[in-house]
Amino acid sequence: MLEDIRALKEENRRLKEENELGLRAQATLMDDLRRLKQENSAYSEKLDQLYRDNTNGNLMVKQKDTQIMRLSSDLESAKLKIKSLEQTIEMMKLQQSSAQTQSSQPLQQDAFTSPFASPKRFSLSRLSLHELSTRVDRLLIENGAAFFNNLDETKSNSAEDQSDTGFKSASALSADAPTVTESKNVGGGEENWRKATEVTAQLKARIEKMKQRNRLVNR
C-alpha cells in the first residue's frame, strides 16, 4: 500500500514537472507567435509600401512617357520652325545679294525724276537700306537747294515779264538731282516743297519699317 502511494506521488511529481515544462514551452511558443505576428505585420507593411512604390513608379513612367512624347512633338515643331527660318534667311540673303547687284549697276538718269514719283518707277525692295536712306537724304538736300534756286529765278523772270504766268519748269535742276513737279505759279512753290517733304518723310518711314522687320528676323 505504501509502495502504491509512493508510486502515485512520484507519478504526480513527474506529471507536474512535465506540466511545468509544457507551460514553459507554451510560453516560449506564444512569444515566438507574437514575434512572428509582428514580423508578419512588418512584412505586410513593407509589401504595401512596395505596392505603393510600384504604383507611383508606374505613374511616373507614364508621366515621363507623356513628357517625352510632348518634348518630341515640340522638338519636331522647333525643327520645322528652324527650317522655315533658315529658308527665310536664305531668301533674304538672295534678295540682299540681288539688291546689292542691282545697286552696283549704274542707275538710269530718270530713276528718280521726282521726290513723289509713282512707286512703279522704282522698287524699294531692290535697293539696300543704307543706299536708300542715303539717296533719300540726298534727295531732300538737293531738292531743297535746287527748288529755292529755281523759285528765285522764277520770281526774277516774273518781275521782268508781266505776261509770264510764273510757270517754270523744273528742268533747270542738275542731271544728278531729282526734279520737282512744275509749279503753276510762284505761290505754288511752297506747296510743292511741302509735298516733297511729306513724300520724303514717307520714304524714310518705310525704310525704318524695313529695318525693324530685318532686326526682328535676325533675332
From TrEMBL:
Bias (Low complexity)? 95-109
Enumerate composition-biased segments (Polar residues).
Answer: 156-172
Annotated Stu2 C-terminal segment domain ranges read 191-213
Region: Disordered, residue numbers = 94-113, 155-195
Coiled-coil regions, chain positions: none
- Entry protein name: Stu2 C-terminal segment domain-containing protein
Could you tell me which species this protein originates from?
Answer: Metschnikowia pulcherrima
Q: What lineage does UniProt assign to this protein's organism?
A: Eukaryota, Fungi, Dikarya, Ascomycota, Saccharomycotina
